[in-house]
């Protein structure tokens, strides 16, 4: 799921974090001594990190998994909320021990941060009207019309496969045009599709094809903070084995997206 943040808002949030947030315990030893794992997250990114109705307690897929990890470490999870760009500024400044916000593992980020083992796996998907059999692969998008946000990587993927793209603001508009029969397909990530279907199980759409290289999302840590990362990996391993990850996944997406 793509997020695009204004630089001015991020800069303001960084100033707020620096001015108002005390330094967090960031090493494994310090986290254990303090009894608190401080976690950066947006808090406005449903269904991963959000407040129910905008005012309730912080919850979401990433939030619940982070809390479960903290429990395995024997400490309390404490969340600090900030816009996307400011999360990494806060991590670098020692305001957070880790970031839990669907951070995808990329070569560029690996150069700057440590990452846990993935707790979300999400391929790109082609979504078509239910019952449509004319599209069964990305190659079948050639000559078809898809609805895509022009600022997303899915727009590029659709174009590369020969689709004619109708520009939209995001998923909501894309799926609306698809359900109205005004476009042939839309390309997005599987998590977006699953979240929509969980909310609208009777929606007349289906997945026609998936990419072979899914995005992998993980917790992010400062470079060199390997002891905390390793402890979190052990916690994730235990949560995977005892079924907790699958349970949280099914709650938010209707299937296990953790592997």
Automatic annotation (TrEMBL):
<keyword id="KW-0732">Signal</keyword>
<feature type="signal peptide">
    <location>
        <begin position="1"/>
        <end position="24"/>
    </location>
</feature>
<feature type="domain" description="Solute-binding protein family 3/N-terminal">
    <location>
        <begin position="36"/>
        <end position="256"/>
    </location>
</feature>
<dbReference type="InterPro" id="IPR001638">
    <property type="entry name" value="Solute-binding_3/MltF_N"/>
</dbReference>
<dbReference type="Pfam" id="PF00497">
    <property type="entry name" value="SBP_bac_3"/>
</dbReference>
<protein>
    <submittedName>
        <fullName>Amino acid ABC transporter substrate-binding protein</fullName>
    </submittedName>
</protein>
């Amino acid at each position: 799921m793509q997020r695009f943040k204004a630089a001015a808002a991020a800069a303001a949030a960084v100033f707020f974090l620096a001015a108002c947030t005390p330094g967090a315990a960031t090493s494994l030893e310090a986290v254990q001594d303090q009894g608190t794992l401080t976690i950066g997250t947006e808090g406005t990114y449903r269904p991963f990190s959000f407040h129910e109705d905008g005012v309730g307690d912080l919850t979401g897929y990433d939030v619940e998994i982070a809390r479960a990890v903290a429990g395995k470490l024997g400490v309390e999870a404490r969340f600090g909320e900030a816009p996307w760009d400011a999360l990494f500024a806060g991590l670098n400044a020692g305001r957070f021990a880790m970031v839990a916000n669907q951070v995808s593992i990329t070569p560029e980020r690996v150069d700057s941060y440590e990452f846990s083992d993935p707790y979300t796996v999400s391929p790109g998907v082609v979504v078509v009207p239910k019952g449509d059999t004319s599209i069964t692969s990305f190659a079948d998008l050639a000559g078809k019309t898809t609805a895509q946000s022009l600022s997303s990587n899915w727009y590029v993927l659709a174009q590369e496969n020969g689709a004619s793209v109708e520009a939209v603001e995001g998923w909501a508009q894309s799926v609306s045009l698809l359900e109205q029969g005004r476009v042939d397909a839309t390309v997005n990530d599987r998590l977006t599709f699953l979240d929509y279907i969980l909310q609208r199980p009777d929606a007349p759409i289906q997945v026609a094809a998936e990419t072979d290289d899914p995005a992998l999302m993980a917790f992010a840590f400062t470079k060199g903070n390997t002891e905390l990362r390793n402890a979190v990996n052990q916690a994730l391993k235990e949560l995977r084995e005892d079924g907790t990850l699958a349970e949280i996944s099914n709650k938010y997406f209707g299937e296990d997206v953790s592997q």
